[in-house]
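During the no-cost extension, the postdoctoral fellow (Dr. R.K.) reprocessed legacy sequence entries with the updated structure-token encoder. One reprocessed record is reproduced below for audit purposes.
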Amino acid sequence: MNNSENISQERFERIEQYLEGKMSVDERSRFESELTTDPQLAAQLEELRVLILGVETAVLKDKMEAFHADLTPVRDIASGGGNRSTVIWRWSIAAILIVAFGLFWMLKSDNDYEKLYAKHFSPDPGLPTIMSSTANYEFYEGMVNYKQGDYKTALSKWETIRDDAMGMDTLHYFRGVAYLAKGDPDNSIKYLQPLWNMEDNSFSAETAHYLGLAYLKIGDIEEAINYLTFSKEESAKEILSEIKD
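Re-encoded structure tokens follow.
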């Protein structure tokens, strides 16, 4: 692990986001471009990939061994015990294999949806930043941060704004998208779900699109399909097609 011994916290977090599919399309593209020109980054990526896989494998192995230890062979005293014990152990091994393969396919499926999300997610480009001395100044100041990709700062500025000062649909929509862009689908849904239920919503189709992506990211495919059908984005059609395939 020579390459990863002195890895910085920032680089580690970027590699982790890449491996977990939490980067936006642009971030992922920039990261992969760096991989082609930075051999050390490529080596650190591979080492951390192997390390994470090793940890996951070890956890699964421990669970299997614990499950195996809890199984008590039942012997048929009347028949000498041999045949019945062998049959029971064979069924026990079969059960373990079924659990293991089930876990494998479940993890594979979740990973596929993460990749699908990472492939198609792109944050809303935002609104024109018209600075003024009005009550909307804090919103547009936060919009500058949002458009720079500094979603944490944007959200901190928007949290202080009253809903009636800017318009609930605009404020909740960009809060929801910002949370999703920073990898927090649960808080994204918290803002976008009530917005979808509002009659007077200027961002109806856009809300459906990002709600669908948020549910896709957490693996709730039924809800993802439900909302993406209301999206007008071309990428939504591609996602629905890939899910069905």
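Residues 74-82, 103-108 have pLDDT under 50 and may be disordered. Residues 9-67 form one domain. The remaining legacy entries will be reprocessed before the final report is submitted.
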